Task: structure prediction
Amino acid sequence: MLTERHQKLLLIVLWLVAGWLALIMAMNFNSASYVDGSFIPVGNDSFYHARRILDAAVGERGFYQFDAMIHAPEGSWLTWPWAYDYLMAAALELALIFKPQLEPMAFLARVPLFWVFVNAGLFLLLARKLRLGLELCTVAMLAFALAPVNQLMHGTGVIDHHFVELTFVLLSLLLGLQFFEDPSDRRSAIGLGIVLGIAPAFHNGLFILQLPLLASVGLAWLKQVPLSKDAAYAFGLSLVVATTVALLPSETFRDMQFTFTTHSWFHLYIALCTAACIAYFGTARLRFSKTNLGIFIAFAASISIPLLIEIGNGASFIAGNTVLLDRIAEVRSPIAAYLQAGDSIAVTQYLSWLIVLAPVLIAIFAWRLLHQRDTTKLFLSMSFVFALLLILVQLRMHPFGYWALILGPLVLLDEARQKYSFSRLAAAGLSLAALAVAYQPPLKYQLFEKVPAGLTRGYAATRTLYPILAESCARHPGIALSYTDDGHSIRYHTDCSVIANNFLLTRQHGEKVIEADIYLQLTPEQLLSIAPQVQYIFVRFMGLFDYTTDGHQVVPVEELKSRNAPLFNALLLRNDLPENFELLGELRVEDYRDIPFARVFRVIR
Result:
């Protein structure tokens, strides 16, 4: 029998080993980030994060929350809040003090790699909080380390904010469980309020972490399970104060905006609503009764009125119904991705076969919600249902849901082990065998596959054109027209502005996508007169090849034309271009020797 001291030592060793394993697996993205002797961002959004961070830390523009160089010529408020990019820039500035010769991108590219130890530690603490033994904790940590979505969050160069989202998800779970285990402990209530209050400063959507807590407290109230008044008040006050403090640096807050798409008064209002509801449920004289239920329903309906429009907008985002979101892989539902791909690889290479357990787990934990009175178990079941529903709605929600795919089955297995009295080693062996089967697709298709530069074939194929565009933009700054997917890359590499990019949340964003698409339907001659603001055009063929597991197949020219915009077809297939178009550079591929694959133009006006 291991002593408590020995168990703690083994858990520390398990954390370190799992962390290093996760780091090694995430380093598979080295080929995507370290290219031609220098580091680049990995993933579309990482390019914009990198540009904003570098501008703040070592650039001339400093830190900005309104960017005049996107959605040109109007500019746009950024839908990413201030805290993540600002603190990354501060960390970079600190690193440069100690090592002035450090390449800034070399530092940024490695931050998510080493942050994996933070999330691995939190994940292990959560597994222990769920009372899993050392054997099942080992299985859980192995599943965490090998998870392909872990690579998407912590891979070299993936400086998108998803790895920090996972940190807040795990922190809210740990503190939430502590809050319900000991409702008289004000410290856990205050800690939970602070975490939930500052989370939206790192990503606007993290306000939804308040929902499982609010739903759990409300359900407990309906079951007449009392909540400590002191804990309820302490939580509510700390939530509102932390939210307010985190909002003070936000320019959109000072601009009096009220929308979930920016860090704004919407988030303070949500915090006030959550605090008010928790306080209601924690007030002794307002214990459950038909009268008090009616009062609460009327109260909840009245405070929801200012949120109706934003709730609709948020639902459209989650459903992927806004402009172009349905074309972005990460916002598709796993079910839709499976149906569209016609096979399981598109889903299981990211989520593994564990995803097939999600509906079953939802059913089990939803059933428990109806029958549990223990508030800690009730919150846990609510969190499982909430997390698994999110991951079924969008692949992008993996920071919110993948923990549940790993820990949900292990919790149920441990309960079965205790009920039927079989050993921990047997339970661990069974779960390891299941994990080996579930992780076959990601191990085969994702973890050991050499990924292209920047993580996308389009960027990898055209990246040598960016220095040419950057040189011209430095001499003659202007607005560049391109496919939406290339907007962030152009901003990272050059000093040119872009009309549209992959910020697709607001009405303005949609209008700019439509504007760019209108330009892409024109002839080169028409563009000269209809879009006088366009001074550069970054042209490339999309869908040049059809990729399979066996390699790639060349697409016939006529099929290629149908996949691309008329303007780009003309600029790549025509040789009699107007005199005003100056060809700065072009790329060709062996399969299309007579047709340029990509070109960069300067429009002389």
The radius of gyration is 26 Å. The chain has 29 helices and eleven strands. The longest helix spans residues 104-129. The chain has four domains: 1-110+121-158+421-450, 161-310, 320-409, 456-603.
